Amino acid sequence: MHAHVLQHVPFEGLGSISRWLTQRNAGVTYTRFFESPELPTPGASDLVIALGGPMSVNDEEVLPWLAPEKAFLRESIRQGAAVLGICLGAQLIASALGARVYRAPQKEIGWFPIESTSGSPDTFVFPRSATVFHWHGETFDIPEGAVRLARSAGCDNQAFQLGPRVIGLQFHLETTPAAAESIVLHSRDELVEGAFVQTEAEILATEPSAYAAVNALMEDVLTYLARGR
Predict the structure, then answer these.
(1) Domains: count for the chain
(2) Could you write out the DSSP letters of every residue in 154-219?
(3) In what order do the strands lie in the sheet with 101-116?
(4) Strand 47-50 to 82-86 pairing
(5) Cα–Cα distance between 4 and 13 in angstroms, integer?
(6) Contact by Cβ (8 Å): 167, 125
(7) d(CA 9, CA 32)
(8) What per-residue string of b and e applies to 188-206 under the rule 16 or more CB within 10 Å gives b?
(9) Nearest Cα residue to 71 out of 42, 106, 50
(10) Sign of the CA dihedral 39, 171, 225, 163?
(11) Do the beta carbons of residue 85 and residue 47 sit within 8 Å?
(12) Which residues of 58-76 are buried (b: 16+ CB within 10 A; e: fewer)?
């Protein structure tokens, strides 16, 4: 298996996904947009992983690499690659497929529950309820032809699936304690008072079992996307 990772900022990396890739002896390449916007040929990878970041998918005038990144994702999907989008990555997939990405009614930052909205045998099915890590101020409409997989009290559209091999997650299942510390360190100015915004202390006091649970769910999602590869 070969995976290509689209990384937008140094402080949002693969987290627990690295372990899953290593266990499968996967070859891994990167486009690190903070270093170079060079992209590979679409279809050259079995799995494309678009990670998170603090920017908006609508910032194409300021960040001109966003347009070719969306085109790359769109063509990778068309050619049948497995594609996973996380937070900004999910918003990029939605935008690439023609869906609207916009400011959410309220920010979600911290550990809050999601609930499954799909029981279809043709989609990945999340647990009825799971507490996951969030860090987003924007959200997306579900792309045409996609199925909503999850919602939360603070955001109706938390995850979607298009066909058998494309999943977008508004939340972070890859987060490890070190990853949480890193994003807090670089983005603590976003921790403003809100109904779905935890304090830095609350975020960093999270028990190891919470990370283990979301990381296990991340492995389930990845294994689902990679089936048959």
Answers:
(1) 1
(2) S-S--EEEETTTEEEESSBSS--HHHHHHHHHHHGGG----TTB--HHHHHT--HHHHHHHHHHHH
(3) 27-32, 2-7, 47-50, 82-86, 166-169, 159-162, 147-151, 101-116, 129-140
(4) parallel
(5) 13
(6) no
(7) 7
(8) eebbeeeebbbeeeebeeb
(9) 42
(10) negative
(11) no
(12) beeeebebbeebbebbbeb
Q: What is the CATH number of the domain that holds 17?
A: 3.40.50.880
Tokens, residue 108: 């979600």
Q: β-pairing, 159-162 with 147-151?
A: antiparallel
87-123 per-residue burial string, b: 16 or more CB within 10 A, e: under 16: bbbbbbbbbbbebebeebeebbbbbbebebbbeeeeb
- Separation of alpha carbons 148 and 145, rounded Å: 10
Tokens 């990405």 correspond to 101
Which letter does DSSP use for residue 142 in this model?
P
* CA–CA separation, 115 and 129 (whole Å): 4
Range of the domain at 31: 2-226
Torsion over CA: 135, 140, 144, 148 (sign): positive
pTM of the model: 0.97
Beta strands in 8-141 (DSSP E): 27-32, 47-50, 82-86, 101-116, 129-140
Residues 140-175 have pLDDT tens digits of 999 999 999 999 999 999 999 999 999 999 999 999
Coil, strand, or helix at residue 221?
helix
CA-based nearest residue to 123, from 91, 90, 149, 97: 149
What is the tens place of the pLDDT at every residue in 81-134?
A: 999 999 999 999 999 999 999 999 999 999 999 999 988 889 999 999 999 999
Amino acid at 94: A
